[in-house]
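Schema walk-through. Below, the input block comes first and the output block second. Nothing else is stored per chain. Lengths vary across the set, and this one has 125 residues.
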Amino acid sequence: MVLPERLAQFNRVVTNRVTGPFAGWLPGFGIVVHRGRRSGKEFRTPLNVFRSSNGFVVALTYGTDTDWVKNVLAAGQAELLTRGEKCHVTQPRLVHDESRRPMPPGVRQFLGLVGVEDFLLLKRG
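--- output ---
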């Protein structure tokens, strides 16, 4: 089970507006800056992001079919604002991992409760 679409809609309308101003500064949070595939419009999506050995990993709590994931995959790159730093990320790659190895232990357990098994790996570029 991935988080329901109704929760995603609530987060887009409410939570993202509340967390947006500080998501680029707090540990475990970030803002991915990406362009729409059709519109070319710039979007800023707050999310949970964690450092990995060569970049970052994002748990796809709403699955692989979200617009921001499709936009980043189509472009092959994005900007990531995290911990007050702006990083260019490239080579986005979807990974399905039932053990949730890319995540820190506490986060791994929470993601297991909600059934998240898909991740987006982003290489620092």
